[in-house]
Amino acid sequence: MSKYEETEVLVVGGGQAGVAMSEHLSARGVPHIVLERGRIAERWRSERWDSLVTNGPVWHDRFPGLEFIGDDPDAFVPKERVAQYFEEYARKIEAPVRCGVEVTSVTKNEGEPGFTAEYTTTDGQTGSIRTRAVVAATGAFQQPAIPPIVPTDSPLQQIHSSQYRNPEQLPAGNVLVVGAGASGVQIADELQQSGRQVYLSVGPHDRPPRRYRDRDNVWWLGVLGLWGKATPPEGADHVTIVVSGANGGHTVDFRDLAASGITLVGRTAAFDGTTMRFNEDLATNIARGDANYLSVLDAADEYIERNGLDLPEEPQARVLGPLPECAVHQITELDLAQAGVTSIVWATGFRLDYSWLHADAFDDRGVPVQQRGVSNEPGVYFLGLPWQASRGSSFIWGVWHDAKYVADQIQIQRNYLTYSSPAEQSETTDHLEKASAR
Q1: Is the pLDDT score of 433 beyond 60?
Q2: Best label site of 128, 290, 427, 434, fewest CB within 10 Å?
Q3: What is the pLDDT of residue 340?
Q4: Mean pLDDT within 18-37
């Protein structure tokens, strides 16, 4: 059975972006509906591995209006706790979230303002919602991106990091993990500890310290003004960040991973059906990551000196050991069968997918054309994009602030649309008087 209704703003996505958007719209009295195809914060629940914890401490990675009640502020909490937090927040603000509702299309209305959204529910119902504006709050992690290196019909089991849950999920044998960002290094470490031989393909990356001189990395990013950077350095918008909250939080060092038994290789380049080939760039990638790490320490030391802060010195943080043997004598070819590799985990990020949104809001690559979430298509807004307004835009706390700005822009347009000229007001008054006289 099909339903039809109207609202002023439709928010698509009930994760951190959608909940934040709902709070700011409600604060401005803007009628809206939030549609979520799964449960609130579904991706935290079902598209992350079992042992995942946050990569930032909960004193920082939260919305301003609610702390993680009962949790250590410096803790890195499990993914289930994050999902619970957003459920709690949605209840607190009485967000009009409808779960189990998947938006299949949003189309610009012809010859009149607004859009029409079509949806289906988990129990098979369909419906339509007419809306003045739509906020695409589906976030940055939409479709797994796997480079076309190994054919899909290969006997190797291939999964994306968003599909990985635990070591028992993979067939017996060794594993190649491609991608050494936050997800890749944690998955590789877990697999190695499970008793498998792991090969980890390492590309270019930034490698910040987890903590330095009694302060977490997120604190340093804040006081150094790096969270608020509006645009990334040239070419750095997709740079992999290697940081981990696992095991209480620790600085990732590829020397430690190699010492644990993981074999490091360079960036994955090609596959001929039996042999995987890697670029001979492992040592260079580690060296550049080290340089990034040391630059953070330099900036932190300078900040402490300039502001006269009494924070403990940490000279040992600058002591970097020698490169591991696998980086000195790099493996550029690996016969996967001979190495006992039976599966590949692609920790290679995500791509955007707005195929459901039919509006003049994208470039020829399908990337939103927007400024701070405001689209070039009137009435279309985005939320949760990387670097949407700043470095923090795709993080929990950052999306809350971006949502505030987007809600302000929606309210501004709402004010314009409520304007009527004196002649229009007079016509409306005459119409009402005539209707009353009848």
Answers
A1: no
A2: 434
A3: 98
A4: 98
Alpha-carbon distances of 264 from 183, 241, 327, 332, rounded to whole Å:
16, 17, 7, 11
Distances (CA, A) of 239 to 100, 118, 314: 34, 36, 27
How far is C-alpha 191 from the geometric centre of its chain's CA atoms?
23
Q: Enumerate domains of the chain plus CATH numbers.
A: 2-142+352-417 (3.50.50.60), 145-346 (3.50.50.60)
DSSP element (H, E) containing 80: helix 79-92
- In this prediction, residue 420 has a pLDDT band, given cuts at 50, 70 and 90, of confident
Average predicted confidence (pLDDT) for the chain: 93
Token pair for residue 55?
């990569």
CA dist 86 and 129 (Å) reads: 25
Q: How far apart are CA 40 and CA 52, in angstroms?
A: 18
Cβ density class 220-237: b for 16+ within 10 Å, e for less: bbbeeebbeeeeeeeeee
**What per-residue confidence (pLDDT) applies to 1?**
47
CB-CB contact of 119 with 125 (8 Å)? no
Beta pairing, strands 211-212 & 370-371: unpaired
